[in-house]
TrEMBL record:
Subunit structure as annotated in this protein's UniProt entry: Associates with the pre-60S ribosomal particle.
Main location (coarse class): cytoplasm
Location in the cell: Cytoplasm; Nucleus, Nucleolus
Boundaries of every Large ribosomal subunit protein uL10-like insertion domain copy: 126-196
Protein name, UniProt field: Ribosome assembly factor mrt4
Length: 229
């Protein structure tokens, strides 16, 4: 990439010394990455799982560097306009940092990055407030997947259960969750006990930038002010 203007002083919001030092460290790390890597990708994520993302990041650490966190800090690091950008044209990336987004600096070929992001998908248990992807209903009768020790816990989750000769028995049909409705804390716990995973952690490419061009992968209504040339 062209010579960076990373040594320009940056004014961050007033914070305690430790917080300010942490932000400044992120700013410097992003500016170092802008010099070291050939391209930068903006990506969005859904159902973030920190451990899974750490594994994905470790897989690419020899060729790439990822940053997530405060969009504002990342924008300041890159520059929000042509007047304060650290590298000509890179302020266009800042305009795309909104919502659940991150940036990936990399030396990998475009095709390889696209393949890695498009193929990445990890399933996990849904959390409270997530939308149920299907209706789950338990029928009246013996619940062989649960041991007798779990009966008190199941009752606390609102399930109409009892012990019958040492077996957990559902005394009436019970709807755990409805498709398209948010999960309650109790529903999320029951789904975990049932081993039903409704959350999918995905990464979506939004744009690719290098000194020659900005390529948008996903057009959003508020991206109309982003120049690609």
């Amino acid at each position: 990439m062209p010579k960076s203007k990373r040594n320009r002083p940056v004014t961050l919001s007033k914070t305690k010394k430790k917080g300010r030092e942490h932000k400044e460290a992120i700013v410097n790390a992003i500016r170092d990455a802008a010099e070291k890597y050939n391209s930068v990708y903006v990506f969005a994520f859904e159902n973030m799982r920190n451990l899974k993302f750490k594994e994905f990041r470790e897989q690419l650490k020899s060729t790439s560097r990822f940053f997530l966190g405060s969009n504002k800090v990342m924008q300041v690091s890159l520059g929000r306009s042509a007047a304060d950008e650290i590298t000509p044209g890179i302020h266009k990336v800042s305009k795309l940092l909104r919502g659940d987004t991150g940036i990936c600096f990399t030396n990998l070929q475009k095709e390889e990055v696209e393949r890695l992001f498009n193929e990445y998908e990890e399933y996990d248990f849904a959390r409270t407030g997530s939308m149920a992807t299907e209706k789950v209903e338990l029928k009246e009768g013996h619940l062989e997947q649960f041991t007798h020790e779990m009966e008190p816990f199941l009752r606390k989750q609102g399930m109409p259960v009892r012990l019958n000769k040492g077996n957990v028995e559902l005394v009436s049909d019970f709807i755990v969750c409805e498709e398209g409705k948010p999960l309650s804390p109790e529903s999320a716990r029951i789904l975990r006990l049932l081993g039903i995973k409704m959350a999918t952690f995905r990464l979506h490419l939004i744009a690719r930038w290098n000194p020659e061009e900005l390529e948008l992968y996903v057009g959003r209504p508020d991206d109309s002010d982003v120049e690609t040339a």
